[in-house]
Design brief:
With about 170 residues, the protein is mainly α. Helix content is about 65%, strand content about 10%. The chain has 2 domains: about 45 residues; about 110 residues, Arc Repressor Mutant, subunit A (Orthogonal Bundle). It is built from 6 helices and 3 strands, in the order H-H-E-H-H-E-E-H-H. The chain has a 3-stranded antiparallel β-sheet. Keywords: DNA-binding, Transcription, Transcription regulation. Pfam families: MarR_2.
């Protein structure tokens, strides 16, 4: 088996191979997509490492933070799903785990007799504030300067808009 070149970029090599095998018109797009997926993996590994001491995943942190930031510290389950942009079944699963850990509670929605509110507990609020300190270390050390971060945000927003994710 041939040895990989030292310090070679496997994603760039995949792009070269894509083009060489007859898909040159899609090679740049393929390389961009694979690069975004790899960056996602790298960032999630850093995030999960930062959150590990707190015993929560990023999806659980996001739900706790959403509730902590809401005025009443509680939201209907369907609003949680919409705001986090995840399937209702995923929200239910995440809430189940957070309830078991004493970080959120379910209660009837007084505005909708059939609906359920999920509310963050004092323990959950404390956890969010502590975990946010660890996450902010990740967020302030991305390896990109502020103009690069803004450019990245602009590019991501442009893609999200073209995909119909933004109004």
């Amino acid at each position: 088996m041939p040895q990989a070149r030292k310090n070679s970029d496997p994603i760039a090599e995949a792009g070269r191979q894509w083009a060489a095998h007859g898909w040159a018109e899609a090679a740049t797009g393929m390389t961009a997509v694979v690069s975004v997926v790899r960056v996602h993996q790298l960032l999630m590994a850093r995030i999960e490492t930062a959150l590990k001491p707190f015993g929560i995943t990023f999806s659980r942190f996001e739900l706790l933070a959403l509730l902590t930031f809401s005025r009443s510290r509680a939201l209907p389950m369907n609003k949680v799903s919409a705001r986090l942009q995840v399937h209702p079944a995923s929200v239910t699963n995440t809430v189940d785990r957070l309830v078991a850990d004493g970080l959120v509670e379910r209660r009837p929605n007084p505005d909708d007799g059939r609906g359920t509110l999920v509310s963050v507990t004092d323990q959950g609020i404390t956890l969010v504030h502590e975990a946010a300190k660890a996450l902010n270390e990740v967020f302030t050390d991305l390896g990109l300067d502020t103009p690069q971060q803004e450019q990245l945000l602009d590019l991501c927003s442009a893609y999200r808009r073209s995909a119909g994710d933004l109004n």
